Structures are given as C-alpha cells and as structure tokens.
Amino acid sequence: MKNPMSDSRLIWSVRDVMRRPLEWFLLTAALTLITAIPATALLLVQGLTGAATSILADSPSLVIRKIDPTGWEPVPVEQSLKAVGSVPGVLRAYTRIWGVVGGPKGPLTVVTAISTPSGDHSATPAHPKRGKVLIGPGAATGSTVSQLTLNGQTTQTFQIDGVINPKSAMASHDLVVLNPLDARRLLGLPDGYASDIAIDVFHAGEETAIIPDLAEALPWPVRITTRSENLKFLSGSYARRGGIAIIATIPALVAICLLVAATIREQLGSRFEVGLLKAFGWTTADIVRHFLFRALFIGLPAVCLGMLIAYASVFSPGVQWPGILLFGWQGRAPALYLNMGGTLLTLLQIAALTLLPYLIATLVPVLKVATADTHTCFEGDGP
Hints:
The protein is of the alpha+beta class and 383 residues long. It has two domains: 4-54 and 235-378, no CATH class; 62-206, no CATH class. The protein is built from 13 helices and twelve strands. The chain has helices spanning 4-18, 21-56, 77-85, 169-172, 180-187, 211-217, 227-248, 250-264, 271-279, 284-315, 321-325, 343-370, 374-378; strands at residues 62-68, 71-73, 75-76, 90-103, 106-114, 132-135, 147-151, 155-163, 175-177, 193-194, 196-201, 222-226. The strands form two sheets. Strands 1, 2, 4, 5, 6, 7, 8, 9, 11 and 12 form a ten-stranded mixed β-sheet that branches. A two-stranded antiparallel sheet has the order 3-10. Strand 1 (62-68) and strand 2 form a beta hairpin. Helix 1 crosses helix 10 (284-315), helix 2 packs antiparallel against helix 7 (227-248) and helix 2 (21-56) packs antiparallel against helix 8.
C-alpha cells in the first residue's frame, strides 16, 4: 500500500522550492547553461564528423597531385592513368579538373571531371552544357539572377542551369560545376592535362599499402593523400573548434556558478532547517529524501531544457550559426543538415556528468548535518 506520508513529503519538497523563487531561477538558469553549452559543442563536433564521414565515403580512396618547388602542377592525363593503372590494387583511376576562382561574393571552387580508365566512365558526373553551370547555394547571388561571372585565367559569364540541393551544402556550398572545356579555359589548363588523379582501391586497408608503388610508378614528384587522412584532419579541426567554443564560455560559467553559490549558500544543508525537520519527527532518511526531491525538482527540468536547447541549436534543419561562428563564413554561411547518429548516448552522458555532481554537492553537506542530533542542529544557527 502506498505511504501517504511519502506523498506529503514530496509536496513539502516542491513547496519548499517554490518558496525560494530566486534560488530556483538562478539554479535552473545555471544548470541549463552548464548543460547546453558543452552539449552544443559536443553535438556539433559529432554531427559535423558524421556528415564529413558520409561525404568522404563517396570520395576517392587516394588523390595524387604533381608537385614542384613552386607548388602544384597539372598532370598529363594519358601518361598518368597508364602509370597508375599498372599498379596492383588499383580498382579505378580517373583524372579531375578543379580549382578556385573569383566569384561575385568571393572565392568559389569550380569542379568537373574527366574519366578515361579503359573506357570506364562510371566515375564521371553529369556535366552541364557549354556555357552553363550548376551552382551550390553559396554561389547564388539572388533568386532572380540567371547568370554567374567567374574570374580565373579568363573572365567568363555563364548561364545558371540549376542549384545543387541545399541538404548537401556542407560539401557543395561554394561549388560551381562546369563543362570540362569551360573549366579548362577558366583555369588555364592545356588540353590533355588535369588537376589531379583520383584512385579507388579494392579494399580500404590497401590505401596506405599501395602509396609507395604509386609514387614509384609516376615519373615526377607527387603528393598522395588518403581518404582516412582527410577524415582525420576534418575530425581534428572540428574537435579543436568545438573545444575553443567551450573554453570561451568558461569565465561566464564560473561567474554564474559563483552567483548561484552565494545565493543558496545558507539554504543547502541549513543546520536550522534540518533541526526543525527533526523536531517535527522526520528521520535522517526523510530529510535526505526531502533534499533529493528538491534537487531533482530543480535539476531534472534544467538539464532536460539544456539538452533540448543544444539539440535544437545543432540539428535544426538548415542551421547556419556554426558556419558563421566557428568556420568564418561571412554572409554565405552554409545551411547544415547534420547527421544525428549517436545523439541519444551523447545527451545521456552529458546529463549524467551535469546532474550527478550537482546532486552530490547538494546531498553531501545535508547528509553530514542530518546524522547529527536535533540539539546539535540548533547550535550556532537560527532562522
């Protein structure tokens, strides 16, 4: 049978919180912020890393670029494909044309691809017709603008043939897809040359193993990067930026904690209050439960609110603030649609790391006082 005394003591605990609205407000605000800020940073890093992993899953296993003392050099298509095609472990090799040019609002990345691996054109994306382009959301200058002027080795104006799906903006935000002939002219690439060589291998574990063979097969110095290296670089970059965001908020969080501590210092574990409850016949267990209920009544909603704010801030469709605040996009921040995989586990871990220390800090001093006798509780304290 349910004990009516437990219900009345729970109501007592709730009323006790409601009698101190300032303490309630400050504690709720502090716990909400303490939960929301690191949760936002961690979820953002997790979401960006998941999105980058999905994007890179469709990227080449290896990318080879020709280098010289002055930087990058174009690669001869026919000679390059013949050389790398002879290396065991290469599933498919194709060359790409890409580069950075000036656009109406800043730099834009122009891309195209040519594929000549024994007549296999499966790696070739659909190209626009001559004089037309597909653009990413960040390359658009307005909903009514139908032309785009690009400044590279030459200046050319193209008809906009379509806009790439905004949901892929993390990879295609400032992208412009051109016809190969237009791209060559804009980038100043001679016929028979490309920007780099893309390679797919039979097994992911072979990426690193065939690098020495690829370097030896080509008759010029090269720089070879792997898909896993790119993912590691992006993950590290996201983690660093997320960490910086957390560190920048530490002074504010410390100030909030100090303010709350000063406000509730006399309430938490008050000897007089505990003594009064003991005088009313409350046992040590009753008193501990009272303060536990009170802490949970404040802590649980605050932590849940903090997690909700973090989740909405990161995973709202088309969110743009990370691009502006963390990645320096000015005026053309991409709309992000991030991967939500593993979010629940991360939120539960953050909730535990926030709520448990709060409960311990609340109950330890109370437990110490509650085990004393009633007379001791009234000594040196008063209403």
